[in-house]
Amino acid sequence: MVRCVSVPPDEGRRPVLMSIRMRAMRYATAKALPTPATGERHDWHTVRTLFPYIWRYRGRVLFALACLIAAKVANVGVPLVFKKMVDYLTLPAGAPALTPAQSALVVPIVLLAAYGALRFATSMFTELREIIFTRVTQQAVRNISLQVFRHLHALSLRFHLERQTGGLTRDIERGTRSIGSLISYTIYSILPTLVEISLVLGILLAQYERTFALITLSTLVCYIGFTVAVTNWRTHLRRAANELDSQANSRAIDSLLNYETVKYFNNEDYEARRYDQQLQKWEAAQVRSQVSLSFLNMGQAGIIAAGVTLMMWRATAGVINGTMTVGDIVLVNALLIQLYIPLNFLGVLYREIRQSLTDIERMFALLQQHREIQDAPDAIPLVAGPCEVRFERVQFGYDKKRQILFDVDFAIPAGGTVAVVGHSGSGKSTLSRLLFRFYDVQGGAVKVNGIDIRRLTQASLRAAIGIVPQDTVLFNDTIYYNIRYGRPDASRDEVIAAARAAQIHDFIESLPDKYETRVGERGLKLSGGEKQRVAIARALLKNPPILIFDEATSALDSKTEKAIQAQLDQVAVGRTTLVIAHRLSTVMNADEILVLDAGRIVERGTHRELLEREGAYAQMWALQLQEQEAEEERAAA
């Protein structure tokens, strides 16, 4: 969390509602999936989607409902027993006071026992309901969270590049929390309240004149109607405050993720001012939201006060007229008190349920995201063994308005090595993304062993490919974990062997915690060269038939580069290898070198052949030789 948010007092300022208030004030996301642009809500659709996850445990659900009803029956029975006790103890006017012994005789022991038993039964059945139902709630949250997690990994790279990571995690976090909140509000608050209201109205109709039930019902209708109307009015204020909160949160996270860049340009004050601008807008929105909340609180309190006053007026009149006893007025008052608390909860719950439904709808919307890249119905697994890779007249563009590759056509024979060189932005790294099938080509085909990769299962295709990417990102875990990630079932000896092959074992052994050294967020505790060597070890541990080196030695010094390059050349023997490089010295031994310029292959051949042609490759080679000589002269100086 970037900052703490002060939560305004809720309806009636009741301490019992603190947990609900804290759940309600969650951060929204700047890139959260919105509800439809028309503002249309799909609450019932969301509930129908959620229901199967709950009904899977129908036995527990039904038992919990039975406990709920039993708890409310016991709770309503307490005032009835208390009325009987009061009536037994009420003496006629002028009668002498009873001694304690006489009081014990007047009040039957059975009433005292019933009073205590009902008090205990209320708590017992309530706790039993929660014990039974808690597994239902947690299992539902777990199953849905896992399903969303798997689905997000199945979505295309384009989806994740266009989304803010913070916003995505917020959608999942808020959605999963809201599932628990919605179930809790419904099972622990709404249903018990409805049961209790029904029981109270039934008692009032059965034992007293209809006026009592009519006043109670009218108070309920007015209270609920007022709450719904004002809450709907307040919704846009809450949404505006949440959106501004989200923007401030995203701005802060973006600044912290780019901590080094902020420091490079000495822009701490600039970032603080930008953050404060958003906080000022959020502050103003929160004030408006609090004012509207206070209006809601006062209106609800006025309706409740009016209803209670009318009920006590009728009860007092009944006692004076002799149609009601003191026990009756105690009963009516107790029932009103018991009904007052659920009424207060209803005011809070309506808003929170709507917010929970919105959060859940956003999370379920992630499940509805179209999988741009998915296996064909008749997809087949790639057979293990040597692999030939072929790009056949491939056309591709990340955006329809801007094409990246034009008629790219080449083949990498099984066990062969093809290198692709060119200036930045020429489309070199796009080739590896297409081979991994992060995107589908828009023209032509990419084939492995003569099979279009769109006809292969993604899992088998990617299992056959290992890559050392240009930008290495590591998990915030140990070095051992990051290397072993290439093959999670590998033994420790295999991990160490891969580290030796990547020329990083000696460095790891020099660290105080050796292989258990944590690399930090995104591997920031390691240098660029160290991170890249970890990535090389990870790819070697995977031991795939196809290898991709995407600028694999770009962050290494010349000495380390030569050592690793020799090792990579040895590792590539017998494997189909695609080398994407900027330094031409790393591709001299490739079976074929492709020169890519603006998405087109402009030259191809071996290193010697391309130098003899004196074309684009020869110019690049001459330029890099000049740069290398200049570096050597500076080093000597």
Please provide a written account of the structure.
This protein has 637 residues and is α/β, with parallel strands linked by helices. Among the domains are: 32-207, ABC transporter transmembrane region fold; 209-323. 62% of the residues lie in helices and 9% in strands. The protein is built from 20 helices and 10 strands. The longest helix has 54 residues, at 268-321. The protein starts with 17 loop residues before the first helix and ends with a helix. Residues 1-39, 93-98 and 101-105 have low confidence and may be disordered.
Q: What's the story with the biggest beta sheet?
A: 6 strands, mixed
Dominant shape: elongated
Straight-line distance between termini: 51 Å
- Within the largest sheet, what's the order of strands? 6-7-8-3-9-10
Q: What's the helical proportion of residues?
A: 55-70%
Can you give the mean pLDDT?
77
What is the name of the CATH architecture of the domain at 32-207? Answer: Up-down Bundle
Number of strands: 10
Q: Supply the number of helical segments.
A: 20
CATH fold label of the domain at 32-207 = ABC transporter transmembrane region fold
What percent strand?
5-15%
Name the CATH class of the domain at 32-207: Mainly Alpha
